[in-house]
Amino acid sequence: VEYLKQNDVKHFAIIDAAMNDLMRPTLYDAYHEIKVVREHDTKSQPFDVVGPVCESGDFIAKNRSLKLKENDLVCIMSAGAYGMSMSSNYNSRGRAAEVMVDRDKVFEVRTREKTSDLFKLEKKIPL
């Protein structure tokens, strides 16, 4: 959780994942459970879990009852293979790293893209 904010109607949890990382909620309102990795005794309240991309569709979950604080680590459940296959570099954002969890073991199976990776396939044209 990068930071929390609210307006007159809602509480928002801004995370470092965005619609370019997991398009399913934006595209067809797919449900992904959101879990707080280390729970604490903060009061539960409804949050819209959103990304940092400046688009009205940049949300991962809406109106979820969560106990959140800034800097919390959250897990977006059941992203599976759809995360990477539907991801994009929209807004010049690198694709996220992928991890596989097998019981108590965690494996990084794909490295996060860096900004330099976004330009690797670009060609210079003579002017």
What are the salient characteristics of this protein?
mainly beta; Lyase, Ornithine Decarboxylase, Chain A, domain 1; about 130 residues; 8 strands; two-stranded antiparallel ribbon
Profile the largest sheet. 4 strands, mixed
CATH third-level topology: Lyase, Ornithine Decarboxylase, Chain A, domain 1
Question: CATH-wise, what's the superfamily?
Answer: Lyase, Ornithine Decarboxylase, Chain A, domain 1
Mean pLDDT: 93
Distance between the termini: 45 Å
| Corresponding CATH architecture | Beta Barrel
Strand order of the largest sheet: 1-2-4-5
Q: How many extended strands? A: 8
User: Which secondary-structure class do the elements indicate?
Assistant: mainly beta
Low-pLDDT stretches = none
Fraction of residues in β-strands: 25-35%
Order of helices and strands: EEHEEEEHEEH
CATH C-level label: Mainly Beta
Query: Fraction of residues in helices?
Result: 10-25%
Compute the number of helices.
Answer: 3
What overall geometry do the principal axes of the alpha carbons give?
Answer: globular
Oligomer: single chain
Number of domains: 1
Q: Which radius of gyration do the C-alpha atoms yield?
A: 16 Å
